[in-house]
Please model this.
Amino acid sequence: MAKKKNKRVVKIQKNSKKGIEMSFEWIFAMLIGGIILFIAIYAVVHLLTTGHQVTNTQAADELMGYLNTYETGQGTGINDQINFASESRLLFEECEPNDNKPFGSQSFAFSDKMFGKYGTPGTPIPVYSKYIFANDSVEGKNFYIVSIPYFMGYKVSDLIMIYSGKYCFISAPQEIQDDIENLRLNNINFSENKNCSGIRVCFDNNVKDCDIKVSGLCSGCQSEYEFGTVEKYDKDGKLLSTNYYSGNLMYGAIFSSNAIYECNVKRLMSKFSELGNVYLGKIKIMEIKGCSSNIQLVLAQATQSANSLQDSKGLIGLDSQVEDINKINEAASEGCKLFVNE
Amino acid sequence: MKKNKRSQVRMQEMAFMLVGVIMFFVFVGLFGVAILFNMLRNSAQQTAENNALAAIKNLASSPEFYCATSKTNCIDSDKAMALSNIPDYKKFYSFSRLEIIKSSAFKKNPSDMVKCTMANYPDCEEIVIYDKNVAYEKAVSSYVALCRIEVENGANYQKCELAKLVAATEDKSSKK
Model:
């Protein structure tokens, strides 16, 4: 037996240089063990990533629920601040006015920093009944949320603005300063010159080096800023986009990206149109009660115009129709007013 | 020859052991995934219910419902009735069912309530804004003032009554 063993050792020594004897079972066990270990590590990493993604999805879903409370009713606005424990990111990349017809949809995803870098964002949460104005990606630990109503005759919806950076409003007219001070918006400073930090929003066309320029186009109105344009520039002063606004949509245009703004304007017009149908239904009920008015025709025309709106530029044309609706409604007797904005 | 056979047997033993170990981990994994999935589903359901509750508390303040006066938590009955005739709105809200029940029907079975139509309005008890007819659902409700303009002897006045705004969400945890 010993002779046999010696013979084999000699054979190995002859065939290999300084070789180690290893049986097939050992090689097999190491190979399979390695594969099992690899699968286990892969599964744990995958589970961690998926777990983080699930947490991100839950966070976005909870935030969505939180946004449900931002209904201003007949009030002027709500503002709030959300603080996260770690650096977080809200992604508003998807907005589709033709999805979920006629209301369109918007979605947002959440991601926070893990081991110094942003993880995979959670599944985007669809939003059908809210109009969120924000940049494509909002990052930081503190997020500022503002909800203000948007009227086109009657109240169409609340506009929710989400931002995290600082803004500097240069040469803002008194009525806009009053609005912002009443809403107690965070991280917004006023200045008469460029010496303030943050994104520079200029209300005076003579001021150079602005990130955003707001121009009022309403002549003969209480404020020239009742409707107008919001232009955005890059660091080299090149014009990136021009958005048209009416009323509080000015804030939406300032705080959001061009794509989100244009998409939400279309969604808001669909909402205006659907609400118009609700009011047309209400007119029929009111007629039974003895209220009569010629608002029906003007309202039907305005809802049609809103439905065929191509981009925000069309808002300016709609303004005169909205004025007509307001005038007819104001002229109606107290109990027969279609809507009251107090 | 004898050694070869013994090696083959050992390899077979190892293969069986390996299959056993893999099966064990697969079952443990499946069990874990099932528990995680169940927890996730319950958590999603809980979040959906919380969201529905937050939404319904503020629904009366939305432009589709609020009264033509500055009253808070007040629903314009005429607008709600008009809204019930616009089927598109079921795509706007995330609820599976949305309805308003007048106080006179609080203690009644849903089948006994008089549903509002343009023909019997306002002498009815239940305004169904929409119903997606979902099999399993959980409902949340909020008390509101349901107001409308009435005309009596040529004069207009606002008539209000107590009502319940009911919103239901699909209960995914009850689905088999």
